[in-house]
Amino acid sequence: MAYWLFKSEPNKFSWEMLVAKGAAGEEWDGVRNYLARNNMREMKVGDRGFFYHSNIGKEIVGIAEVCAEAHHDSTTEDPRWDCVDIRAVTPLARPVTLAEVKADPRLTEMSLVTSMRLSVQPVTAEEWRIVCALGGVEP
C-alpha cells in the first residue's frame, strides 16, 4: 500500500462533503499540475491518503482511500488530465495542523512542508505513522 495526501479548499470541497458521498466516493477532479497528475497515475485501489483542508484551516482532517484508479478527468476534454476516485475512511480524532507538521523535526522532509503548493502528494510510511499518531488514529 502507498500513502498520499489530497489537498482541498474546504469551502469548495470539504471532508464533510467527501463523507456525504459514501462508499461510491468522488472523482478527485480538476488537478492541472503534471506532478500531481503523475502521482494519481501511480495510485492503486486501496491506497490511503490524508485529506488536508488548505487555505482555510490548514490541517489534516481525515483519511481517504483510493476506490478507482487513474482515469480521464470528466471535467475536461483535454486528454492529458487524469484523476482517481477517493472515498472517506475515517476522520482523525484530532486534526493535525500545518504548524504542527512543520514544527515536528521528524516531518521536515514531508512533501506538505517541502512542496506546499502540490495538491496531490506522496507520503512515506514513516510520515503516515507519525501523522496518524498525532491525529489519534491507528496507522
UniProtKB/TrEMBL annotation:
**What SUPFAM superfamilies would the database entry show?**
PUA domain-like (SSF88697)
Q: Which Gene3D superfamilies match?
A: ph1033 like domains (3.10.590.10)
Domain EVE positions:
2-133
- One Pfam family from the record: EVE
Taxonomic superkingdom: Bacteria
Q: Span of the secretion signal?
A: none
Q: What is this protein called?
A: EVE domain-containing protein
Q: Which organism is it from?
A: Paenirhodobacter huangdaonensis
| Lineage, highest ranks first | Bacteria, Pseudomonadati, Pseudomonadota, Alphaproteobacteria, Rhodobacterales
